[in-house]
Amino acid sequence: MPEVRRHHISSAVIAAKPGCLDAVLAALAGFENVEVHGADKGKVVIVIEGPSTGVLGDTLMRISVLDGVIAANMVFEHVEMEEDEADGQRTDAA
Question: Which HAMAP family match (predicted)?
Fold first, then answer.
């Protein structure tokens, strides 16, 4: 029986203190599983990816304690489920 792997994707909004947006963006660039999709007027929209909800939550917690961050809130989470190859055929489940 093939093993089912899960890939979690979440979006979040970060609020930065006035004058701290550049420093927050620089810190976010150091996270392997975080992509910045927009930043304006102290707000940052990001996507976090990982193998579990726990990894996403841990990443968001680490972001929330960065210098210059007022708040970091998860907005949406989606889980992709993918089966390993079986008998030379690949099957995906959503």
Answer: NapD
The values of phi and psi at residue 21, to 5°, are -60, -45
Q: Tens of pLDDT along 68-85? A: 999 999 999 988 887 655
CA distances from 8 to 13, 67, 94 (A): 17, 26, 12
Tokens linked to 77: 């989470």
CB count within 10 Å of CB 3 equals 8
The CATH number of 4-75, from 3.30.70.920, 3.40.190.10, 3.90.550.10, 3.40.1110.10, is 3.30.70.920
